[in-house]
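Sequence of ABC transporter permease (Acutalibacter muris).
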Amino acid sequence: MSVSLECKKVKRTGFLPSFFGGGILAAAVPVINMAVRSEMYLNQQGSPIQILLGANWQMMAMLNVLLVVAGSCLLYHTEYADNAMQKMKSLPILESSIFFGKAVLTAFMSLFVLVLEAGAITFCSYHWFEVGSGFFGELCKYFGYSLLLMLPCMILSLLISEACKNMWVSLGIGVVCVFTATMLPATNFALSLFPFAMPFQIFAGADITRSTYYICGAIAELAICGLAQLILVKVRRSFE
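Predicted 3D structure, token representation.
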């Protein structure tokens, strides 16, 4: 019920166009890079997916995270505009269910963006490289891992947007977090667990242990953010 309601709400915002446009832009990154500088990558060792993501994923992940931040701000801006959230509280709807509906919708649109990017990687692999028989299994593994690592960033962005009634405040906090994540050293595992830094990680088939740690970290951060959302709702009600 809450998910279908959220889908109706976003028709009045730029949420869907932003994800469509941003997804196409992110998917165009590897295609343009290979069209202009293909000679730099054709002689590298490794599978086509590893080469392409190694060359383009930082920019693609940056666009993905910025889309999540902007989308989260748009979703909650509609709730706080004209005191819509106050009106929603008078209905028999839990605030947590509203948050869950927005999370599911954002996750679905993030999946849509990753599918576009996977399509671009597939095109580049077939056009410029020799593709093996296990290509699509490897592709699903890489992008499934990317979706999982994006979820903590998505939930935290929604939590920040829920906490800040002013959209520009939540957007500013999100942008600062994104650029802070880009400055953190990738070699430091503890710092790379920062939710806004995790989407920049690429699945390392040669280092399954490290990838498993990131998966466990993402699940733990999802649980922490979910608990923080419940606490936020109760604290806010006590001050209203």
